[in-house]
Amino acid sequence: MNNHSANEPAAQGKPRPQTLTDLFVSFTLLALQGFGGVMAVVQQELVEKKKWLTQEEFIEDWAVAQIMPGPNVVNLSIILGGRYFGLPGALTAFAGILTMPLLLVLIIAILYAPYAHHPSVAHALRAMGAVAAGLILATGVRLIAALKRNPLGPRVCTALSALCFVGVALLRLPLIYPLFGLGFVACVMAYRKLAA
Q1: Which of 49, 181, 183, 186 is the 20 to 30 Å CA partner of 104?
Q2: In this prediction, what percent of the chain has a pLDDT beyond 70?
């Protein structure tokens, strides 16, 4: 099965990573760009620049990555690495997405420690949160177009999104409840629509 899925994109002429080195370097460069709103960077790199995924494929794979334990982008790298090169690909993509950020975080932690309690540093870090929120919002807006081809249709998707926003942002529910509650409802609705 791995061989079939690895050869399928090439057979269709769809862009894909050519080697394990290409996969490793691509995810390393992706990781080095992913400060704050990593979803925006991932979507831009994998869908718009490299064209390894369509918008619809990205949304589906990102949804799977979100329900798995661990960081979403790491899960996505494992999914894509495994799809193209099996277990060696999954491990290579995993190493690519984590190696440089791990080294950078260790270096930054050492450099940051003496200035951690300085008020200017704290304010600067809070300001970065606004930028990350803007990146996530911009990505969400770009992905709206893919909802037109969603089996549930744009109205139902918008209603589910609004319910999720109300649950998380206004009612302050832990993310697990909207994720699995609304996610389960969406899966059942989509299954029934596709089965009809």
Answers
A1: 49
A2: 92
Answer whether 164's CB lies under 8 Å from 178's CB: yes
Enter the pTM of the model.
0.64
Closest CA to 95 of 83, 81, 109, 105: 81
137 in helix, strand or coil?
Answer: helix
Contact present, 149 and 55 (Cβ < 8 Å): no
Task: State the average pLDDT over residues 180-196.
Answer: 88
Alpha-carbon torsion, ordered 64, 66, 135, 127, to 10 deg: -170
The pair of structure tokens assigned to 150 is 């969603």
Residue 157 and residue 18: Cα distance in Å, rounded?
35
Task: Find the helix or strand (DSSP H, E) in which 11 lies.
Answer: helix 2-11
Sign of torsion, CA 72 77 82 87?
negative
Share of the chain above pLDDT 90, in %: 36
State which amino acid sits at residue 136. I
Condensed to tens digits (0 to 9), the pLDDT of residues 117-175 reads 888 877 877 777 777 777 777 777 877 877 778 888 888 988 998 999 899 889 999 98
User: The tokens of 154 are what?
Assistant: 């744009």
Distance CA 98, CA 32 (A): 10
